[in-house]
Amino acid sequence: MTEQGYDNWWSFVNEHLVRLGxxxxxxxxxxxDLEEMRNYNIKENxxxxxxxxxxxxxxYETNRKEYPKFELFLPKLVEQLNSFNKIDIKNKMAAANNxxx
Length: 101
Hints:
globular
């Protein structure tokens, strides 16, 4: 990720959130190549935390009464992203390299 300009954990996390937002907006718009976009971001660009973050963001999308503002949900998402350790990251990298679907 350093080659792409993400030289610290929080810039890496921030870009995951940007890519995740792009994916979820594209889903709501009915974009035809959504899976291609998702796979490209995970496999080619290395945003390996997107699948986990996307599962959590679906909780936000389906519980808008509990989370009327995204800022109320954001700490939960950041907590999830911050919870991964080196072994988790290595396992997610291996899974992405072996064909995330």
